Amino acid sequence: MEISEMRAIMEAVIYVAKDPVKTEHFREVFPEESPENIKQALAEMVEEFNGREGGMWIREIAGGWRMTTRPEHHEYIQSYLKSQPGSKLSLAALETLAIIAYKQPITQAEIQAIRGKKSNSSALQTLLEKKLVSIQGRKQVVGRPILYGTSKEFLIHFGLNSLADLLTLDEFKQLAEEQS
């Protein structure tokens, strides 16, 4: 198959895929092609797609490839989304999500201790329902409390390839200083 045809098919697959498409998935789409041809076609497709001046680009997120909006259009996208009805996370849910993202795996009691308030379980329940958080197992202590951690959906939702892409505390401080 021609590389140009493979690039077009890859772009279409990434567009329709619910989850980020891993390079290995393209081996299933193109079983007759060598891994080198697949990697070459993927690299060329990403470079060509991202080289144009459109509103979308293809980037690696959560270990796979996904079509996303360009960051320079963030303000306009955010403005549009604010005008649309939808469910937003409460401040308690956002605080809980941040704690889980940085301290995982973590129990509900540990989350409450960090937040410094007696929080109800509704924030955690909301995060579970939205699949931003998942149950990671049980802590090996008395009572065996449930351990929570972020999910693949968390990475996808926030456009992260891995948890290593989260900002550090120093980066947060620098952003705060720049904002003031």
Helix content: 40-55%
The largest sheet is:
2 strands, antiparallel
CATH uppermost class of the largest domain: Mainly Alpha
Rg = 20 Å
Alpha-beta content class: alpha+beta
Q: What's this entry about, in short?
A:
The protein is of the alpha+beta class and 180 residues long. It has helices at 3-16, 23-29, 35-51, 74-82, 91-103, 108-115, 122-129, 152-157, 169-179, and strands spanning 56-61, 64-69, 133-138, 146-150.
What does this structure look like?
This protein is an alpha+beta fold and 180 residues long. The chain has two domains: 3-73, Arc Repressor Mutant, subunit A (Orthogonal Bundle), CATH 1.10.10.10; 91-179, Arc Repressor Mutant, subunit A (Orthogonal Bundle), CATH 1.10.10.10. It has nine helices and four strands. The protein has helices spanning 3-16, 23-29, 35-51, 74-82, 91-103, 108-115, 122-129, 152-157, 169-179; strands at 56-61, 64-69, 133-138, 146-150. The strands form two sheets. A two-stranded antiparallel ribbon has the order 1-2. A hairpin with a 7-residue loop joins strand 3 and strand 4. The longest helix has 17 residues, at 35-51. It is globular, with a radius of gyration of 20 Å.
Helix/strand layout:
Blueprint: H1 3-16, H2 23-29, H3 35-51, E1 56-61, E2 64-69, H4 74-82, H5 91-103, H6 108-115, H7 122-129, E3 133-138, E4 146-150, H8 152-157, H9 169-179
Helix pairs in contact: 1-3, 5-7
List its traits.
180 residues, alpha+beta, Arc Repressor Mutant, subunit A, 2 domains, two-stranded antiparallel sheet
